[in-house]
Amino acid sequence: MGYPTNYRYTKQHEWIEANGNGVGRIGITDFAQKQVGDVVFVGLPKVGATFQAGEELATIESTKAVFEVFAPVGCEVLELNTSLESSPEKVNADPQGEAWFAKVRIVDPNELSSLMDAAAYEAFCPECQP
Q: Domain residues for 48?
């Protein structure tokens, strides 16, 4: 699975897809889901919650351990992917598509420029190569 070129990436292996109107979706990369292992539970934030870049946004529980998902940028949660509550295995099946965690309002779109594009992410993380 390659890394979508319209996403921006963090060093902690989160992605954000910004649609240009100040709204984005947040998830984890394919590499991250492979490191996590079989996902058995996803803890989502509350709608209306606000986060600064780097704050814990969600949690993933696997058969190995519990992992944190961090906000890539300052944001306010607008919508949750509640399907992950009943089907957490979607994180393993489609981490960069249907298994997004939250739709957010991006507080400062300029923060996106501090994140990596797909080429930079792959260069940062050679072991992330598909």
A: 8-116
